[in-house]
Amino acid sequence: MHKIILIGLWLCVGYAALSQPLKRLSIEDVSTNYALYARELPQMAWIPNTDLYSYVNNGRFEVYDVDGKLWTAIGLEDINKLLGDAEQLSRLPYITWHSQGVFSFTHLDKVFLVDEGKQAQAIIQLPSGYANLEYDQATRNYSFTVGNSLYVNGVLLAEGTNNMVYGQSVHRNEFGIGKGTFWSNDYGKLAFYANDQSAVSDYPIIDIQSPVAQANKIKYPMAGQANEVVRLGVYSVAGNKTVYLETGDADQYLTNVSWDPNGKYVYVGVLNRGQDYLSWQQYDAATGKRVKTLMEERDAEYVEPLEPFIFNPENASEFIYVSMRDGYTHLYRYNTQGMLLNRITEGGYEVTDVLGFDADGKNVYYVSTQESPLERHIYRVSVKGGKPLRVSSEKGYHYGRVSATGKYVIDSYSSRTEPRKMELLTATGKLVRVLHQAPNPLEGYVMNEMEIGTIKAADHATDLYYRIIKPADFDPAKRYPVVQYVYGGPHAQMVSETWMGGASLFLHYLAQEGFVVFTLDNRGSDNRGADFEQVTHRRLGEVEMEDQLVGLEFLRSLPYVDDDRIGVHGWSYGGFMTTSLMLKKAGNYKMGVCGGPVIDWKFYEIMYTERYMDSPQENADGYAKASLLGYADKLAGKLLIVHGTADDVVVWQHSLALIDACMHQGVLLDYMPYPGHGHHVGGSDRIHLHRYMAAYIKDNL
Predict the structure, then answer these.
(1) What is the C-alpha to C-alpha distance for residues 584 and 546, in angstroms, rounded to an integer?
(2) Count of domains in the chain?
(3) Structural domain contains residue 93
């Protein structure tokens, strides 16, 4: 039925100090004690065009060469002296290195440039309320937004309104989009999004802080309804002129934006609303005219572009294209004529990140799941393809920063036995030195046992990874209540070879309190290839529940599990899964606790929902089956729903609609709204949230 592939007994590190009683995690610890998380060296960064690196240590910025020699150190007192008569800093700022000895930072609505230890010079004055700042130290060109308006070099470029938004992220941050302005390499031209939301309905987010509650309206395009209309403008600083790319006015998505290294062309991934056809278009930056279609992708389920073209810094006519076209995310080498030169990577694994090139552009560094879906490792491979070289070595979850020369990599990783370690490696993976080894932040605390293994999915063929956390004083002769923690949706992986196995401190708290905590990454979740993810297309919740119930049967087979005391818990997509399991598979779980749950996909945003479900008009039966509103009368067991009243991701309407359905069916359930909170409950109120959920779980299991 199952096999254990990795077993880790995560035990106390501090046994040498047996005279000191071990502490127990408190609700305050798991909610707001950020000292209990293992961290990197702060502000670790390579300095451009060098093999020097910098980080914060002992309250100062320290710059080292690869031989470990300290080149310079700059503390808060030093920076304040450079500021002179300007208002002083109370703590170290976040800095951006531009070259050796040259860095900048923002302070009191100004950008200060520090050059070789000279006086800090204010090079940019910013207005109150600015956001989305991008600037170039060499040309002094910069852009920012205020409200919905876009400014370049301090001058209004495009004035926004309630319906028109300039220079900000679009399409609800889907498709890898995280910003709305894109400077050319020489900072001479700025591409920017212009988002017309006039056709999108206003959605009320209720604010109860004023004596008369107010409706703060946002634009929230729901599945099947009118979408935003996005264009891309290009502003030339030298010509003081804006042109708009001829992208047409179809109902579509302008996804990833790339600049030709010479600043002559803009490349855009244009995706149809159905999200099954992607065309990469080349536009003339001076005129906005479409030059040609470089390539196209089609998929029966969906195409999801997440990366722009990655141009080779040593060859402006070549770029790397990241695509899942063969069933796994891999790298392809193209020229700007749209010709495929070669595949760079291939195999039954996922490339998860591209880190950069070496100095001559002949090799590229990337991160992938080649060793295991549970791990991430750093590799280097020729841009012409071939056998990749694994740069990272230790078991775990690695991420890298490549130096400007490409000769060195700073490898940062964790594992179930390593809280956080940072190493300086050569391009071939040879260890130069250990830069940082984080102490166990939970030393002196009661620790739990942890196990990671596999079981077969409901298809009896696919391996699924699970994680079990057992109480530290686990006794195999006893029978324990279980909390089955679930997420289950795309773009998420819960089980990994990382510190704490990818579990939150709250889950470890529950184990400490006497619960077995179980998590399973079902089909439909991330980093296992297209077939694994797309099996849920047009029927969200069905396959995921089948796999989670296989996990439940596995739990019931364990001699230490009390199968009369099993509950399920999840948030967001996991809230959808929790509620689905409690209503559609009623009787399997004694209790459920969920937060911010999707209840009916027709209430969720277009971009995400229509990728996985198509539109309600195209897939009426799929939406009807996925909706939980018709299952309110099926509830068996105790169910708590938690929801932030200002949630602008999964809007409050979802859980309220279920409450309404339960009222009409005479069904009792428990409900806890968090006024003013969004999709997650933060700050000190998180203590209340965790205390409330923990008490509910204890009372009902």
Answers:
(1) 11
(2) 3
(3) yes
Model pTM score: 0.95
- Given a contact cutoff of 8 angstroms between Cβ atoms, the answer to whether 619 and 611 are in contact is no
Give the end of a domain, one of 100, 125, 150: 125
Question: How does pLDDT run across 515-539, given as a tens digit for each residue?
Answer: 999 999 999 999 999 999 999 999 9
Picking from 125, 157, 183, the residue at the C-terminal end of a domain is: 125
- Give the tens place of pLDDT for each residue, 638-674: 999 999 999 999 999 999 999 999 999 999 999 999 9
**30: exposed, middle or buried (Cβ count in 10 Å: 0-12, 13-18, 19+):** buried
Rounded distance between C-alpha atoms, residue 6 and residue 371, angstroms? 14
**What is the distance between the alpha carbons of residues 298 and 301, in angstroms, rounded to a whole number?**
9
Q: Are residues 520 and 620 in the same domain?
A: yes
The answer to whether residues 105 and 156 belong to one domain is no
Beta bridge partners of 385: none
**Cα–Cα distance measured from residue 52 to residue 68, given in angstroms and rounded to the nearest whole number:** 10
Name the residue range of residue 196's domain.
142-308
119 with 169, same domain?
no
Catalytic residues: 572, 647, 679
- Is the domain of 198 the same as that of 278? yes
- The radius of gyration of the chain from alpha carbons, rounded to an integer in Å, stands at 26
- Whole-angstrom CA distances from 387 to 46, 363, 429, 657 are 27, 12, 15, 54
